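Throughout this chapter, every protein is written as a compact record of paired, labelled lines. The reader may check this reading against the record printed directly beneath this paragraph:
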Amino acid sequence: MSRTDIKADGDVFARLTHSYRPELLAYCYRMLGSAHDAEDLVQETYLRAWRSYEAFEGRASLRTWLYRIATNVCLTALEHRKRRPLPSGLGGPADDPEGPLAPPPEVAWLQPIPDRLVHADSGDPAAIVAARASLRLALIAALQYLPPRQRAVLILRDVLALRAAEVAELLDISVPAVKSILQRARAQLGQAAPSEDETTEASGARQRELLDRYAAAFENADVEALMGLLTEDAVLEMPPTPTWFAGRESIGRFLSSRVLTVPGAFRTIATTANGQPALALYQRGPDGVHHAHAVMVLSISAAGITRIVRFHEPGLFELFDFPRTLGPDATDESTP
């Protein structure tokens, strides 16, 4: 079948390119820091690919050609967007856990992304682990500090393992230019990214255990039990609120005075995001129904929970394929 025929038959083109969608979505997410923006840009990538498929000469692989289009789409989009931070990227932690929270600024915040959207089936355990590590929230936040072209080169080389010559052709620059950009990107990322010690993860079983215990403590408003799960230097961030807290004691004081005041006020559903344990959090309203409230992503080391990022953005629930409300029983869920 010719390329003209493939383009004419949208189903054939979709079958040829569908398997690349999860990794392209992950790539656009790493570039933009927004799951919603990433989905839009992948749609734009596929539209441009379909329109120009007849001109695809096959000198590079179909995968590399799609990445070329996706990179151009992302770089164009980033011309009109600022980096997406987490609260810890804008200032120091709050001094008074019981004081007023700062009002949300006009900032486009970093978003989480559900694992189900970006992790294609793979028979290689090492590849799965590497893919998850490359999507951790701390790394995505650090990537936002890089200029867009540095960001693209670093992801293409260090995450996707494309050869320098492939990246040079993809970006229409020389191989020495790729190496120079990559060197600068690595140096800058080394200043912003967490250290290896901070990213050492607990085993899968340990993560599930701590996630279950954290969910139970949250639902029961058991602050003492929850504090026992945190490391001494744990961090709590709550975008879009720019106020954040550092240290187990500060987090405990904030939760006990402002959040976990009544057992049963919250219910949770376990999930995963950015290769990390996560919870969909529902808060009970005046109608007695638990409504979509926030998505919490946890960083867990062998020592305990090191970071909690609570994204108070109910619109994320559709992305995670969760209902907007929960009925009286855990299994009685309304339609999204």
In short: Residues 330-336 have pLDDT under 50 and may be disordered.
